[in-house]
Each structure stands twice: as C-alpha cells, then as structure tokens.
Amino acid sequence: MTKRILITGGAGFIGSHLAEKYVEEGHLVKVLDNFSSGSPNNIRGLFNHRNFKVVNGDVTDRELVRRVAMDVDVILHLAAEIHVDKSIFDSEHTCKVNINGTLSVLDAALENDVKVVVYASSSEVYGSAQYVPMDENHQLNPASPYAASKAAADRLCFAYSNTYGLPIVIVRCFNTYGPRQADLGYSAVIPNFIRRVMSGLPPVIYGDGKQTRDYMYIKDAVKAYDSVMRSYDHLLGRAVNFGTGREVSILEIAGLIVRKWGKEEKLEPIHAAPRPGEVKRLCADTTFARRELNFETEYGIEKGIGELIQWYANGGVDEWRAYTKSGLE
C-alpha cells in the first residue's frame, strides 16, 4: 500500500537514505529541510522524481510544518541541530530547533490526524553508560546541551502520546556512520578519520581514545527505521534502541582505518585534549528490537568501515561535494 511520508531533515545523512528507499518503493515522499546541515547533494537523484517533493523551510516554522503535514500518513521526524560542540557554544539555538521544532511537528501531527510519528531520538540522551548493554530503561542523563535538548524532545513525545493519544514511536539509534555523513563534529569520528588517513594525515583522538561507542552502519539504520514503519502498532508510546550491541573504542577505530588503508607505519594517532560534553561509554541492548521487530544488524564494524572506505576511494565524497545547489533552485 502506498504511503504518504513526510521526512523532516530529509536532506540529512540518515533522512536522505530513507527518502531514497521510500521513493524507490513507490511511496509519496515529501522532505522538509532548511539545508543548514543537510545538503541538496544528498537528495539530488530524487529532484525530478514524480513521487518526490522537497520543501525548503525550517521545522520551527509552525505554520509551514502544519501545511506540509497535511494529507500525510507518516512523519519521520529527523530534523535537528546535531552538533554537540555547537550546542555548547549556542545552546539556545540547539534547544530552539530540537525542542520547539519537535513541538511544531507533534502539534501538526495532531491537527492533521497523522497515523504515526516516528521520532529520531538519540543514544546521547542516556549519557555515559551506568551499565552495559544499555536498555530502554537506562536512566536519561544527558551530558551536553545537545543531548539535553534531545532528551527533552524525547520526553515531549512520550507526553503527547500519553496526554493526547498521538501515535508515536521513539527511535534511539546508537552512533550511525556511512556514506554522506559530514566529517565534522563529535558524531563524525569515522568519516573524519578516513578523510585524514586518505590524505596521509594521522587520526586526531580527543582524550585517551578509550571511550567506546556502538557503531551502526547506515544500511542497518535504514533497516531499523523501516522495521518500525512496517510494524509500529504495538510500539506506540514506546522507545526502541537500535545498535549492534557491541562496543568499540576510538583507539580501535583509528587502528582499523589505518590498517585498512595500509599505512600503519606512518600514521600513529595524535592525541588532543578531551572535549567537553563527550560521554565515555555507549553500548545498546537491542533485546526489545530483536523480540518485537526481529531486528538484527548485518554490518559489523570491519565490514561497515570497509564499505565506507571503498565509497571514499571510488570518489563518492568528491562527487557528493562537487554537486551545487542548482538542482534545488
């Protein structure tokens, strides 16, 4: 059955992959994005498709969100200010986008009787792990203004589900990586390392590098969202973790990338001062996702990084960056 899908932040890293998938499957896809962090490059292949529409606008524009949410069945709400470091220096902007923007989406969904809202929360809402693996009942203890804003929006979603009966599922993906991810900021350590190593430069590690993450490849992240889209009825009002259930240190990531690029003798990582607001340990418990959605990841860290390096080596990032905004204008 054809669905009418609105993806906020649909020109972003994860959103653009979802937009491609659903357009290819024959669904009617509308993207709302202001292109502050997302890029028209990410959705350039969709511009002329009859099932695709892009709206250049801000998720905090309540009237615009209300209009673009008319006649849609599903809202995938991924629009966000995603940079931890930026949130430290401009917490007001981060909170405006992540909290007020989510409020705009929730109110628009209520007014337009949307069948389901899938909200992209974040593993950052948990803060550093108090136990591993981390299930959905782990205490929320955000360590940065970004994480706090995502936690507040996460709780707003629960409140709208409980108070108004809004059909909503909260998705908490752990660290996602893959083609099209910008190599800037806290979350982009893998593309940042790859770009430096391919340029003959050593990886820069902030702190001792012993901090761990649960890295999920983009194809598994798309699979995760799609599993929710296909079976959301029994998940309404719930949060669900998606990750690999395996943690890996930043030091291990750096070593793996150097080895795969074949320059281990030359490129010993450089250590810089730790960054504020960075959590020390994250690892997903995906028991709920496995039980309710039969979700299993297909990409381990070596397979995922290998595929991403191949994308870089084949010129994917250069082609992506060379594309101008002319396709949008």
Observed structural traits:
329 residues, 39% helix, single chain, 11 helices, alpha/beta, Rossmann fold, 15% strand, seven-stranded parallel beta sheet, two-stranded parallel ribbon
The major sheet is characterized as: 7 strands, parallel
How many β strands by DSSP?
A: 13
Strand order of the largest sheet: 3-2-1-4-5-6-11
Write down the overall geometry. Answer: globular
Residues in helix, %: 25-40%
* Gap between N and C termini: 32 Å
CATH superfamily annotation: NAD(P)-binding Rossmann-like Domain
Percent strand equals 15-25%
Give start-end ranges of low-pLDDT stretches.
322-329
What do we call the CATH topology? Answer: Rossmann fold
Rg estimate, integer Å: 19 Å
Oligomeric state of the chains present here: single chain
Class by helix and strand content?
alpha/beta
Describe, in plain words, how this protein is organized in 3D.
The chain is α/β, with parallel strands linked by helices and about 325 residues long. The protein has one domain: NAD(P)-binding Rossmann-like Domain (Rossmann fold, 3-Layer(aba) Sandwich). The chain has helices at about 15-25, 60-70, 85-90, 90-110, 145-165, 190-200, 220-230, 250-260, 285-295, 300-315, 315-320; strands spanning about 5-10, 30-35, 50-55, 75, 115-120, 170-175, 175, 205, 210-215, 215, 240, 250, 270. Strands 3-2-1-4-5-6-11 form a seven-stranded parallel sheet, sandwiched between helices. It has a two-stranded parallel sheet with strand order 7-10. Strands 8-13 form a two-stranded parallel sheet. The longest helix is centred in the first third of the chain and has 21 residues, at about 90-110. The radius of gyration is 19 Å and the shape is globular.
